[in-house]
Design a protein that fits this description.
Elements (H helix, E strand, L loop, with lengths): L3 H33 L10 E9 L2 E9 L2 H21 L8 H11 L3 E2 L2 H16 L9 H6 L15 H10 L6 E4 L2 E4 L12 H15 L5 E5 L2 E5 L7 E6 L6 E7 L4 E6 L4 E4 L2 E4 L13 E8 L2 H25 L5 E5 L4 E3 L1 H6 L1 E2 L6 E3 L8
Parallel strand pairs: 15-17
Antiparallel strand pairs: 1-2, 2-6, 3-5, 4-5, 6-7, 7-10, 8-9, 9-16, 10-13, 11-12, 13-14, 14-15
The structure holds adenosine monophosphate and magnesium ion.
């Protein structure tokens, strides 16, 4: 089967960009002519516009289908500043930002007043941690660091000592131990070390879409390495995207993404430590302290980017046996898991929406379990 939608997003937009440039130029010439003639009228019509930012250590691609290129450029400039601020202030281990300082305060047993934005982010993260039975647990920063993932370079060498992992597990850091007094935050457990790596990207993608809308850009796609949120449509068609195959090459499936939706994927192929032929993924099971193995990737569609990001991580931990329950608890109906053997698990609604772009050995369709009241 041809990867129509996934390729389409590139193939459709490059000619569009050239077209909009030509239209733009000819409009200028026409505009000059009409200005002389005392008439100024030029309908450029919408076209494709694209900008790429280097933020959060990754390339962020922003595409818009719009007739307002100047507003688009202004919105992207503002977004770049906001994202640089988020990267600086909410980094888990680099520099001296707000989150690093909060982690230090927590380790001392102190409270710290944070910005309303960070307090909001942490409240949401706490809710998602509770909904996921703490499989999404952004309080395990010490474990993530012990495995070597608080580093720009991929970690090398043997896994950490089992005794050190057990010691951190015994400390049982959890988001439920965060205490909010308005925007003053403390933790009842000094072992809490916040790492928002599994959540902040989804939150930021949603924010980007809202900012673009505030500038009058209502048809856009914001994509950070395959994690994305969209608004509106791409002309007369919905935005269409491809989901990368976590075990093989290319695109495993394509999907049309509706106005306001986000698609987030967590994968153990993204970052890992490799030793003696064994890969240790950057997603850690907070119950055991060891990296997840049974899931190659988890993809979630939701209107809430932060929820989808947190859930994709939680479902990677939950694995093929437990994802139904966690998805239901998190209120999600559109989920796809690729397990370590290449079998694809989909919820019925996801199964109806996606179009596989490669032959798949086993597709298992099952609904998230209804959570008990
Ligand atoms: P993601 O790619 O969204 O799944 O996020 C993975 C990142 O989140 C890792 O690089 C860690 O910084 C952090 N992390 C790892 N395991 C967990 C977990 N179980 N819950 C929350 N954050 C985690
Ligand atoms: Mg995530």
């Amino acid at each position: 089967m041809h990867s129509r939608a996934a390729i389409g997003i590139v193939a459709r937009e490059i000619p569009g960009l050239q077209r909009s440039f030509i239209v733009h130029l000819s409009c200028r010439i026409l505009l000059l002519f009409f200005l002389f003639a005392g008439v100024s009228a030029c309908d450029r019509g919408p076209g494709d516009h694209q900008q790429t930012l280097l933020v959060f250590g990754t390339l962020l691609d922003i595409k818009a289908y719009t007739d307002k290129p100047d507003e688009f450029a202004a919105a992207v400039r503002g977004l770049e500043q906001t994202f640089q601020m988020m990267h600086r202030e909410w980094h888990a281990w680099k520099g001296d930002g707000e989150l690093v300082r909060l982690n230090r305060a927590i380790a001392r047993g102190d409270a710290m007043r944070v910005t309303p934005e960070l307090a909001d982010l942490l409240r949401q993260a706490k809710r998602h941690a509770q909904q996921s039975d703490h499989l999404f647990n952004p309080a395990i920063g010490r474990l993530v660091a012990l495995w070597g993932f608080h580093s720009d370079e991929p970690p090398a060498g043997p896994p950490p000592d089992a005794s050190r992992i057990a010691a951190l597990i015994a400390q049982a850091p959890a988001m439920s131990q965060l205490v909010f007094e308005e925007n003053r935050i403390r933790a009842s457990n000094r072992a809490v070390a916040l790492d928002l790596g599994a959540f902040a990207k989804g939150y930021a993608l949603n924010l980007a879409i809202r900012r673009l809308q505030a500038f009058g850009i209502g048809n856009a796609i914001v994509n950070a390495g395959g994690d994305l949120c969209v608004s509106g449509r791409h002309g007369d068609r919905p935005w269409a995207i491809g989901i990368r195959h976590p075990l093989g090459e290319g695109v495993i499936a394509s999907v049309e993404v509706a106005d306001g939706e986000c698609v987030l994927t967590s994968g153990n192929y993204e970052r890992y430590r490799e030793h003696e032929g064994i890969r240790y993924a950057h997603i850690i099971d907070p119950r055991s302290g060891y990296p997840v193995r049974h899931v190659a990737s988890a993809t979630v569609i939701s209107r809430d980017g932060g929820l989808a990001d947190a859930a994709a991580t939680a479902l990677s931990v939950a694995g093929p046996q437990q994802w139904h329950r966690i998805a239901a608890q998190m209120g999600l109906a559109e989920v796809m898991l690729v397990d370590e053997n290449g079998a694809v698990h989909v919820s019925p609604r996801m199964g109806q929406r996606i179009e596989f772009q490669q032959p798949i050995d086993r597709v298992l369709v099952s609904a998230p379990l209804q959570s008990q009241p």
